[in-house]
Design goal:
The protein is α/β, with parallel strands linked by helices. The chain has a single domain (about 5-225), classed as TIM Barrel (Alpha-Beta Barrel). The chain is about 45% helix and about 15% strand. The chain contains twelve helices and eight strands. It has helices at about 20-35, 55-65, 80-95, 110-125, 135-140, 145-150, 165-175, 190-195, 210-220, 225-240, 250-260, 280-290; strands spanning about 5-10, 40, 75, 100-105, 130-135, 155-160, 180-185, 200-205. Strands 1-2-3-4-5-6-7-8 form an eight-stranded parallel β-barrel, surrounded by five helices. Helix 3 (about 80-95) links the parallel strand 3 and strand 4 (about 100-105). It is globular and about 45 Å long. Belongs to the DapA family.
């Protein structure tokens, strides 16, 4: 349903941590102009963990409003409470989002049966297309391929963002579920390889900084142009790495501010990128040809 480069959009903030909505509108235009295939609003990169309910809903709603149907908008609505995730998912649908992205419940470590029941309850409660999101490095919770396979039979579960961190895991999910739902890479550095294995795109941090290149990379990989996909990926390799010199979204927010698209605001407990990493990120941006 959603294919290609899907930016995990940063949430722009003023220096005092307030959401900067004019900058958000500029970012949406930036991605429309540069060919990004979909926008994920208020995911991990969008600092979902530190936005309150009203802010969370408003950022999703305004992103959809600014997009005006020109680009799909996917709202990040995962939570470690099933009730809370249902509420946020309903907000996203009412606010005009085209789909939602649901991270596994974090901290409370549900069983695989608990994960199945969690996702099925959300899908049953809200009839919007839903994408599962597995990122055990952040959540201490691993959505196993066999559980994804069970969930693939739920009609409005249409995809999974697999950020386990290996091509092998993504390949197993594709082999089990590829005819029933779309599999997306949650890691920029291995996204090309996952698309070559049958994945349908990348939910990308790098696309915040190099949207056209990420779109072109995904398009080349999906049409089987291995040489062109490898060329673009090599151009972006340093940038993929630089986006994680500190915890996401610290480096990417600094990089987007360096492009002049927003201010450097970030919300505690995240802190600004230390000066010792500025030149590393700046040089990676230059190597990618975006600065």
């Amino acid at each position: 349903m959603f294919h290609g480069s899907m930016v995990a959009l940063v949430t722009p903030m003023d220096s005092d941590g307030e959401v900067d909505y004019p900058a958000l509108e500029r970012l949406v235009e930036f991605h429309v102009d540069n060919g990004t295939d979909a926008i994920v609003a208020v995911g991990t990169t969008g600092e979902s963990a530190t936005l309150d309910y009203d802010e969370h809903f408003e950022v999703m709603r305004r992103t959809a409003e600014y997009a005006r149907g020109r680009i799909p908008v996917i709202g990040g609505t995962g939570a470690n409470s099933t009730w809370e995730a249902i509420k946020l998912t309903r907000y996203a649908m009412e606010g005009g989002c085209d789909a939602v992205l649901l991270v596994t419940p974090y901290y409370n470590k549900p069983t695989q049966e608990g994960l199945y029941q969690h996702y099925k309850a959300i899908a049953d409660a809200v009839p919007i297309p839903q994408i599962l999101y597995n990122v055990p490095g952040r959540t201490a919770c691993d959505l196993l391929p066999e559980t994804v396979q069970r969930l693939a039979d739920v009609p409005n579960i249409v995809g999974v963002k697999e950020a386990y961190g290996t091509v092998q895991r993504a390949r197993e999910v594709i082999e089990r579920c590829g005819d029933k739902l779309d599999v997306y890479s949650g890691d920029d550095a291995i996204g090309r390889e996952i698309i070559m294995q049958g994945g349908k795109g990348i939910v990308s941090v790098t696309a915040n900084v190099a949207p056209k290149l990420m779109h072109d990379l995904c398009a080349a990989a999906m049409r089987g142009d291995i040489q062109e996909a490898e060329r673009i990926d090599a151009q972006l390799a340093a940038l993929h790495k630089a986006m994680f010199v500190e915890s996401n979204p610290i480096p990417v927010k600094w990089a987007v501010a360096e492009l002049g698209l927003m201010g450097p605001g970030i919300r505690l407990p995240m802190t600004p990128l230390p000066e010792q990493h500025h030149e590393t990120v700046r040089q990676a941006m230059k190597l990618a040809g975006v600065l």
